[in-house]
Predict the structure.
Amino acid sequence: MNIVLLGAPGAGKGTQAVKIEEKFFLTHISTGDMFRANIKDGTEIGKLAKTYIDAGKLVPDGVTCEIVKESLKKVKGGYLLDGFPRNLFQAEELDKFANIDLCLNLEVDTSLLLDRICGRRMCHCGATYHVSTLGGKTTCERCGKPLYQREDDNPQTVKARLATYEDQTAPLKNYYLAENKLATVDCGAKSPDEVFKMVCAVLEKFNK
Ligand code: AP5
Ligand code: MG
């Protein structure tokens, strides 16, 4: 099963991806995580990506499609794409080198997103938290390392990211709807575990 995970910034793609990967044995590929790893390592891709990420804009398609294409060559079995494709060009390119079975769209009211993103704390191991549930803790429950805040998780960049999403990424819902591959989970204000139950219901039905 090869899945595209679609959703606005802060919709919970990363949070759900960790759970889906574990339960359905899929490889989680996040373009955002790959760019952040490149930035941390100081690579040329990282230097280029940082200028776009800091501005809340999309990293150029050529670089982005290439890193996804290369990553998929190493994957055995099914995978979960988190944050790719993000515009029509990327979706069409993806269809040239991959067979996508399903686009899982996480729908969350925009009014919830700013607080979620600005309160997010991350660990380099991939775990994601929110300050409201950390009870003052500053280290990762999973691996014990210090948590950090993403540089693009500030109100100004988040507004730009949301605008980029509405303008370029949201239209992909229609792209996958036309291919009869769209499944939308209406997350409302439900907790991550409640959302995961709905996600499982969709994936189990699809997997039959
Ligand atoms: P990326 O890293 O993909 O960021 P994003 O799409 O903006 O999404 P986020 O990671 O911010 O949110 P999420 O949906 O994963 O939410 P999360 O689970 O963490 O991309 C970053 C940048 O890289 C882009 O802006 C772009 O510049 C570049 N880029 C990436 N891919 C690209 C591409 N294909 N093309 C070009 N450029 C690309 O949850 C958020 C918070 O909410 C957390 O605190 C979490 O604990 C909390 N939370 C989660 N679920 C719930 C819930 N149900 N209830 C309450 N709180 C919740
Ligand atoms: Mg994410």
